[in-house]
Specification:
Organism: Herpetotheres cachinnans (Laughing falcon)
InterPro entries: MAP65_Ase1_PRC1
Protein name: PRC1 regulator
Helix content: over 70%
GO molecular function: microtubule binding
Strand content: under 5%
Structural class: mainly alpha
Largest sheet: none
Number of helices: 6
Length: 214
C-alpha cells in the first residue's frame, strides 16, 4: 500500500512538472504575442501551487488574447463602414497578429477622428443640399447630371462623403449662386428699363401696379 501511494504521488508529481513546463512554454508565447513582460512564478511555492498559478495565468492571458482579437475585429468592421462612407483607406494594422494595448488605443483614436470627420462632412452635405435645392427651384433648374441627381434625390446616409464629392458639392453650389447673381442683375437691369419706358410713355400708376407682382 505504501509503495502504491508513493508511486501515485510520484506520478502526480510528474504530471504537475509536465503541466508546469507546458504552462511556462505557453506563457512565454502569450507574453510575446501580447507584448507583455515575462511572467515570473514564485519559486518558493509548492509544485501544486506553482502549477495552479501558472494554469490560472495561462487562462487569463488566453482570455486577454481573445478579447483583444475580438476588439480588433469590431474596430476593423467600424473602420470599413467609415471608409466606405468617406472613401478613405483602412487603418494599417496586422490582422493576424495580436494587437498591443497601444495599437488598440491608436485605432480607437483614429476611428474617433474619422467619426468626427464623417459628422462634419454630413452636416456640410445636408446644409449645402438644402441650399442647392432652393436655388434649383428658384432658377427653375432641372438636375441634368448624375451627380446633381444624386445630390437632390439621395439622403445623407447613401451619399458618398468623399473629399472629391464635398468639393464637387461646393462647386455646384457656387455655380448656382453665380447663375442666381447673373439672373438678379439681368432682372434689375430689365426693371430699370421698364420703369424708364413707363416714365417715357407716361403709363398710369394702376397699370404699373398690375405688373408689380412680377
Amino acid at each position: 500500500l505504501l509503495d502504491m501511494m508513493v508511486a501515485e504521488e510520484e506520478n502526480l508529481k510528474d504530471r504537475l512538472l509536465k503541466s508546469i513546463a507546458m504552462c511556462r512554454k505557453e506563457l512565454d508565447t502569450l507574453c510575446q504575442e501580447l507584448q507583455l513582460e515575462p511572467f515570473e512564478v514564485e519559486e518558493e511555492s509548492t509544485i501544486l501551487q506553482k502549477e495552479k498559478n501558472l494554469r490560472t495565468h495561462v487562462e487569463a492571458m488566453l482570455k486577454q488574447k481573445r478579447d483583444r482579437k475580438q476588439e480588433l475585429k469590431t474596430l476593423q468592421e467600424q473602420d470599413q463602414d467609415l471608409c466606405d462612407i468617406l472613401c478613405t483607406t483602412p487603418f494599417c494594422i496586422d490582422s493576424d497578429a495580436v494587437p498591443s494595448l497601444e495599437d488598440l488605443d491608436r485605432y480607437r483614436r483614429h476611428l474617433a477622428s474619422l467619426t468626427a470627420e464623417k459628422e462634419q462632412r454630413r452636416e456640410q452635405f445636408v446644409s449645402r443640399k438644402q441650399q442647392i435645392i432652393l436655388l434649383m427651384e428658384e432658377l427653375d433648374h432641372t438636375p441634368d447630371t448624375s451627380f446633381e441627381r444624386d445630390v437632390v434625390t439621395e439622403d445623407e446616409e447613401a451619399f458618398c462623403l468623399s473629399e472629391d464629392n464635398i468639393a464637387a458639392l461646393q462647386n455646384l453650389l457656387q455655380q448656382l449662386e453665380a447663375q442666381q447673381s447673373l439672373n438678379e442683375a439681368a432682372c434689375t437691369e430689365l426693371r430699370s428699363r421698364i420703369i424708364a419706358l413707363w416714365e417715357r410713355l407716361q403709363v398710369p400708376v394702376e397699370e404699373r401696379e398690375s405688373s408689380a407682382v412680377h
